[in-house]
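ok so I'm stuck.
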Amino acid sequence: MIIIPKLNIIKIFMRLRRIYYPFVVNNNKIIIISDEKAHYLRSVLRYQVGQKLHIFNQQQQEFFAEILVIKKKQIELKLLEEVKPIKPSCLDLCLVQSISKGERMDYSVQKATELGVNRIQPIFSEFGDVKLKGERLNKKVNHWQNIAISACEQSFRADIPQILTP
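replied:
not stuck anymore, here's the structure
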């Protein structure tokens, strides 16, 4: 049996859930996750006190953490050690995508993120049926940004692509 060290490391990571933490982690040894992520860990994944996971943020920081306290609306995590994230690609890729109907745009954002795109520029095309303005457009851009974050959690990407406003 041949063991390739890099693949072995990835196998270990794949057993642990990765969660995006939107803040910079300075010297804090304990961080608090609230709202949707806390609900996801507590109610969907049914994590318990003592279970371990990975936390990462936009500043290329990734930590191995353990759950200390689970409350109704928040979870306290103890940061055990800093993990060196997978190095991002040196290519600067920008995807210019015409906004498509339904879930097709969501799928495009997800797959582009998994493939390593740095920026996604949605555009309105002349023959496109989608017309978004004002608040609906802002909600869609936030929705696509959340899809990009979820894709980064699943694909072990440390850098989150920027979703530009059309």
